[in-house]
Write a structure and sequence with these properties.
Length: 374
């Protein structure tokens, strides 16, 4: 099956053309073309994504990316279109003005080309993005494995960590999964952006904090470890973010009277070396609950694998901490992390989710649902 996939859930416009085969038990994907147009520079001055601006950029970028996928030559375009079996588009979660842009574009293509169109769940894209790691995605590697079977990787625990979501999922197989925990307030990626703002760093905050944390002492400041001792698989990041705010406020006594300026970039004067220690200590406090609860879930459900997905999974420190935990606790589970391109928002993972849903006869309405969940 050849799939044209479209992703416009937030501030990334993405289109991909991929081939899928193997069925629900042994799926294999070949990426023919994949393009992502970033809007970071446009939204950075605002410290976050502005929905109206995101929509405008999606409208501009979608036709340009489609031309890149199909080529400029009309004859070549016609050939490419004839080979497409399915169009897939993200319907949620995300910013609804942005989602509707992608959906409307996909509907227009579906009508013009007379091709079937299906909606896809952005979170399922991250959930199944492990299939785009080298362990499953590299054909030469698969051919070298004598007893390759997806059954060997299940049951599995999947940790989805992004700017909008922090979710722990138990997967029995590609058809059956259940959410066993999630954040009760802020997502981990959102807390990185907000703490980066406090530290006077640029948007998006995750890569900036990761960069600084490499130079800092993660043991320098004892920030709270949210919900780490609670006997459940839920998370919370509102308190950790506030703890960093209070720490900075107490260091900057001159700003205590200007509460309304606390979240203004550059509100606090911070020594460069201290900024590095704060970044490292915050990152450690943010990641430890993810590491501990993922490992506990793996032990409880006798998981053979731990899958990572979402933008925060691009932070190499998180994977390092999970690998160390697996080794220290002697957990018999393999950690699988997609390559950087497939951790961040992309259209390939949307095509993967659409293919698997097509096989399992799972359907999503073709309308924007900003609060769609697993």
């Amino acid at each position: 099956m050849r799939i044209l996939a479209i992703e416009t859930s937030c501030d990334e416009t993405a289109l991909a053309l991929l081939e899928a085969k193997g069925g629900i038990n042994q799926p294999f994907f070949k990426v023919i073309k994949s393009f992502v147009s970033s809007q970071i520079k446009i939204h950075a001055p605002f410290g976050g994504v502005v929905p109206a601006l995101a929509k405008r950029q999606h409208l501009k970028n979608l036709p340009l990316l489609l031309e890149k996928v199909l080529g400029k030559d009309p004859f070549s375009q016609k050939q490419q279109i004839e080979k497409i079996d399915l169009i897939a588009v993200t319907v949620g979660p995300g910013l609804e003005p942005a989602l509707w842009t992608g959906i409307s574009f996909a509907q227009q293509l579906s009508q013009e080309w007379k091709k079937p169109l299906v909606g896809a769940n952005h979170l399922e894209g991250h959930l199944f993005s492990f299939l785009l790691s080298s362990k499953f995605f590299d054909k030469k590697r698969l051919e070298s494995l004598k007893n390759y079977s997806l059954k060997l990787w299940f049951p599995a625990i999947s940790l989805i960590v992004s700017g909008g979501h922090t979710i722990l999922v138990l997967l029995k197989n590609l058809k059956n999964y259940q959410k066993i925990g999630e954040t009760l307030d802020d997502a981990v990626g959102e807390s990185f952006d907000k703490v980066a703002r406090l530290l006077g760093l640029s948007y998006p905050g995750g890569p900036e904090i990761e960069r600084l944390a490499k130079k800092g002492n993660a043991q320098a400041i004892a920030f709270p470890l949210p919900m780490i001792s609670q006997k459940n698989f839920n998370f919370s990041y509102s308190g950790l973010k506030t703890a960093v705010l209070y720490y900075l406020r107490d260091l900057n006594t001159s700003t205590k009277e200007n509460n309304h300026n606390f979240w203004k970039p550059g509100a606090f004067k911070i020594n460069p070396s201290l900024r590095e220690d704060i970044a490292a200590s915050f990152q450690r406090a943010a990641f430890l609950p993810l590491v501990k609860k993922s490992s506990l879930a793996a032990l409880k459900y006798q998981a053979k694998s731990i899958f990572l997905g979402g933008g925060v999974a691009a932070n190499k420190k998180l994977a390092q901490m999970i690998r160390k935990e697996i080794k220290d606790k002697k957990i018999k589970a393999n950690l699988v992390v997609p390559s950087l391109n497939y951790c961040l928002d992309n259209a390939v993972m949307i095509g993967v989710a659409a293919y698997l849903n097509r096989l399992s006869k799972k359907k999503y309405p073709l309308k924007a649902n900003g609060n769609l969940n697993l």
